Amino acid sequence: MEDEMENQKISVIIPVYNTKEYLEDCVNSVLEQTWTKIEVILIDDGSKDGSKELCEELCRRDNRIRLFPQEHKGVSAARNAGIEAAEGEYLFFLDSDDMIHPQLLEALYKLQEESHGVIGTAGMQYAEKGRIQKSAVWEKEDRQTWEGCYLDNHKARNPYFFHHTKVKLNAIGGKMILREGVKAIRFNENLTHGEDTWFLYQLISNGADVTVLFRNWYFYRKNRRREGDYSVESCRSRYECQKAICDYETKKGRITEAVHTEWCLLCNLVLWQEMGKRNSDRELKEYVKNLIETEKRQALFPKVDWCRRIVFYLGCIYYPVYKLIADLMHWYHTVLEVPKEFRK
Q1: Which of 26, 108, 242, 264 could cysteine-pair with 120, CB 3.0–4.6 Å?
Q2: 181 closest CA partner among 307, 115, 91, 85
Q3: 186: exposed, middle or buried (C-beta count within 10 Å: 0-12, 13-18, 19+)?
């Protein structure tokens, strides 16, 4: 059985768009994996900075790397192309300016095989100023030291788990997914932000269970491409994603989960309004102002408990006090509802 497991291929899907500076480090972190039965699928999404040429050079160095160039269509289209091209039993998603620990693929694969989870995830380590350094955390560990847990799909949908830093089910980077579990689900190519949240949510809502590795073995460059994070376009995309989740939970009769998601959406509206003020973005401020009025008229809004609604109204008026109260509320409910091993 162990020999059979060792022969299973993992397809690592890496969308590439103008990340030549980091791409080689990213790919090398995959080629250095202790799990060697892999294929690396590079989807160049119309790069203009020489990334495509570097992809071609990497393909010549290692025959496990395949390149699929396309016109610029966005990261969702690139990932979808990677899913279609993949030949492995498992799909692993990696952004082209991030890196992974050399044992991550092996650890996730073996934990998933033992637990039969469709989705495998590990914690993230955020690289300040974009620098990823191979420190002590890069040293290889004995398999017996790996710690993790299993979440059934009902528990994984709980917002406290879905957004928790040790689970991070609202981001696709570092996720290993059983190919059979993906079925016909694909990334929404009309979303510019939140597309990975919606993709993972659909998988879980369709019955996918989750295996969590308690290691921060996905290395994320924190300062990259942040300029569009709080544009009207990005906020509109995130809003559509969260409204879709609210609507789906409501349709399924899971009102408690829908109300939780509505509260998360209200918190985001407060944050976006604050970012519009800080960035002197009149367009964003006006857009969020209209969204806030729209949400107040929604059927889910009065179902949010009165305490949270007061905090929301406070956030619309004075952000610093709202932030303090909201953080305290989050900490309080995390202590009550999340098991000890998930607490920060």
Answers
A1: 108
A2: 91
A3: middle
According to the 3-state scheme, what is the secondary structure of the chain? CHHHHHCCCEEEEEEECCCHHHHHHHHHHHHCCCCCCEEEEEEEECCCCCHHHHHHHHHHHCCCEEECCECCCCHHHHHHHHHHHCCCCEEEECCCCCEECCCHHHHHHHHHHHHCCCEEEEEEEEEHHHCCCCCHHHCCCCHHHCCEEEECHHHHHCHHHHCCCCCCCCCCCCCEEEHHHHCCCCCCCCCCCCHHHHHHHHHHHCCCCEEEEEEEEEEEECCCCCCCCCCHHHHHHHHHHHHHHHHHHHHCCCHHHHHHHHHHHHHHHHHHHHHHHHCCCHHHHHHHHHHHHHHHCCCCHHHCCHHHHHHHHHHHHCHHHHHHHHHHHHHHHHHHHCCHHHCC
The alpha carbons of the chain give a radius of gyration, in whole angstroms, of 21
For 39-63, what is each residue's pLDDT tens digit?
999 999 999 999 999 999 999 999 9
Residue type, 24: E
- Quick: pLDDT tens for 168-202: 788 999 999 999 999 999 999 999 899 999 999 99
d(CA 302, CA 252): 19
**Lookup: tokens for 197:** 């949240």
Cα angle 147-64-170, degrees, rounded to a multiple of 5: 45
Show the tokens assigned to 180. 């059979």
Residue 189 has a CB neighbour count (10 Å cut-off) of 15
Contact 187, 196 (CB under 8 A): yes
Say which residues have a Cβ less than 8 Å from residue 282's Cβ, sequence separation at least 6: 276
Contact assessment for residue 118 and residue 43, using Cβ atoms and an 8 Å cutoff = no
Whether 3 shows a pLDDT value over 60: the answer reads no
Q: Report the C-alpha gap between 105 and 8 in whole angstroms.
A: 12
| Stated pTM of the model | 0.89
CB-based contacts of 250, cutoff 8 Å, min separation 6: 258, 300
100 Cα distance to chain centroid: 15
Q: What are phi and psi of 41, to 5 degrees?
A: -105, 110
